[in-house]
Every structure is written in C-alpha cells, then in structure tokens.
Amino acid sequence: MQPNPFLGVLLHALGGLAAGSFYIPYKKVRQWAWESYWLVGGAFSWVVAPWVVGILLCPKLVATLTSAPPKAVLWCYLFGVLWGVGGLTFGLSMRYLGMSLGYALSLGFCATFGTLIPPLFQGGFVDLLAKLSGQVTLLGVFVCLAGIIVCGLAGVQKEREVSTEEKRATIQEFDFLKGVWVAVFAGVMSACMAFAFAAGKPLAEAALQNGTLDLFKNFPVLIVALAGGFTTNCLWCLLLNVRNGTLRDYTSAPDASLLVNYVFSALAGVTWYLQFFFYSMGTTKMGRYDFSSWTIHMAFIIVFSNLWGLAFREWKGSSRKTHTLIVAGILVLVASTIVVGIGNWIAAQG
C-alpha cells in the first residue's frame, strides 16, 4: 500500500486525543477503589474492544492468530505483559501528579525508549543517519523530546508556585516525589508496547495473507499484546481488591449508582482502546520509518492531556510565565509531528 505520512499523522492525532481523554470518565466513578474501576475499564480496553474490532475487521481472525509463528506471538504477548506494568503505574502517576504533569513525565521516557530502541535493535539506525529522510525524521523525534522537556519544566515550575492546598483541590492525592518516581518507571515500561508492535509484525503479515486489509493488519497484534497487558493488570488489581477488602465494589456502590460506575468505567476503557485503534492504522501509513509513529503518538497524547489539564484548571495558581511555558511546549510538540511527517514523506518519494 502506498504510504501517506500526513494521513498517518492525522490518525495518530485522533489516537492521541483518545489517549489524552480516557481518564476523564473515571472522574464520574463514585465510591469505588482505584483498583476496581481500573480493572473494569481495563477489561473493556484490553479484552472486549480488541476482540470486537478484530472480529469485525479481520477475516479469519482465529486462523491468523494460530498460523503466525509461535515465537512472534510469545514475544508480542511478553512485551504486552511488561507494557502492562507500565500502564498500571501510569494510572498511578496521574493520581499523584494530575493529567498535565503525569502525562508529560511518563510519556517523555516512553517516547525516548519506544522510538529509538527498535531501530537500534534492528540495526537500521545507521541507515537513518545516512539519508536526508532519516535525518529529518530523527530531527522531528528530538524536537518532540524538546517539547516534552518544556512541558516537564512547566510542570516543575508549577510545583514550585502552587501551594499544596491548591494542588489537592484539583488532585486529591497529590504527591510530587512519589509521582515522579512512578512516572519515570511507568514511562520506561510503557515503551514496551512499541516493542510488541515490532515483535508482532509476523502476525500482521499473517493477517494480510488471510484477507485483512493493510490498514487493519495490526489489530491481531493488538489482541495479543493487550492480552499480556490485561494479565498484569488483572492480577495486580485483584490482589489489591483482596488486600484492601474492595472486592465488594463489583456488586455495590454505597451512595452511588452501580450501573453508572460500570458505564463510565467501560466508557473510559473503550476510549483508551481507541488510541491504539487509530495508532494501528496510522502506523501502516507512515512508510519505511514506521518506528516514528511512537513519537507522534506520544506527542499528541501530551498535547491533548495538557489541554485537558488546562481545561480542568490543574494549572490554577501558577504564574503567567508557567502558562506561557506549557503553551510553548504544546506548540513545539505539534511542530515535531509535522517535522516527522515531512521526513516520512521524503522517504515515500524515494
């Protein structure tokens, strides 16, 4: 299929919007512990939605999953398990830091590891440096990292300016030190999803051979990788349910509607899945430098999460200089996606 990097960037933007917005429905959940609504949402994110989409858009889905090389399926699953650890702690980073700072720190490390390690591991990094298209693409990657740093600096500046009382008015469990450690760990482990996509390429090829359109070939990869993520999160959440005595959450919600809690948790889960629904399609349009999809995805997630953070007044109490800094970071991130798109376009022109 002919590459179309700018369509790929648009699809990644839609994925970034979904990823930057998924946590909002959780704010409507009442009288449930974090581990309860995270697991309910995760069941829709990592099991229900991937299978529904796969069945609808991938002919001979079961044949695709069983005909792919077992080694590729195993590695895709294992990277999904590791990514699940990152996803688990990613949710904690937002609990402690809020959407703006939590996303910026976690995804900064995620973008770095997830973008640069696959071409290094596959031996294609030198080839990138030797060609104009590769140089422009890498420039876009580093512009993205610069934008993430600017957003992170804005978050640090906000931490210095806003009182603890003001922070906890919008982020009830605010804890900067704990949040930073969690965000760094979450970012590094979350990069494993990029590795899962790389390991799952034989799955995508099997999907094509079984009649799946090129645009949808990565959906079977998602089924396997997200199954790994569900394994990690399910075990941890159930452990917390037992330890904290919150298993009753699934059948009761004192002073709140049980149905409402399930509906909003499911909505959050499906919204979360949409990020990889669009990411899976976007990466098929990027051409030979499809590894750069991860950079664009991370950039748009941070852009939209920070816009939501501003909308929810998480930056209330910070100075005009800090507000200017976060807006500048957002603009740099948007610029980085354009630069990466241009690099992939040059490659597509040969």
Write the layout of secondary structure elements.
Elements: H1 5-21, H2 34-57, H3 61-67, H4 70-122, H5 125-130, H6 132-161, H7 164-170, H8 176-190, H9 192-199, H10 201-209, H11 219-244, H12 258-284, H13 293-311, H14 320-348
Helix pairs in contact: 1-12, 1-13, 1-14, 2-11, 2-12, 3-10, 4-6, 4-8, 4-9, 4-11, 4-13, 6-13, 6-14, 13-14
Write up what this structure looks like.
- With 350 residues, the chain is mainly alpha-helical.
- The chain has one domain.
- Helix content is 79%, strand content 0%.
- It is built from 14 helices and no strands.
- It has helices at 5-21, 34-57, 61-67, 70-122, 125-130, 132-161, 164-170, 176-190, 192-199, 201-209, 219-244, 258-284, 293-311, 320-348.
- Helix 4 crosses helix 13 (293-311) and helix 6 (132-161) packs parallel to helix 13.
- It is globular, with a radius of gyration of 20 Å.
- The model has no long low-confidence stretch (mean pLDDT 82).
Brief sketch in words of this structure:
The chain has 14 helices and no strands. The chain is mostly helical and 350 residues long.
Shape: globular
Order of helices and strands: HHHHHHHHHHHHHH
Low-confidence stretches: none
Quantity of strands, as a count: 0
Strand content: under 5%
How would you characterize the largest beta sheet?
Answer: none
Note the total helix count: 14
Question: How many angstroms separate the termini?
Answer: 15 Å
Q: What is the alpha-carbon Rg in Å? A: 20 Å
Structural class: mainly alpha
Percent helix range: over 70%
- What does the average pLDDT come to? 82
Main traits of this protein?
350 residues, mainly alpha, 79% helix, 0% strand, globular
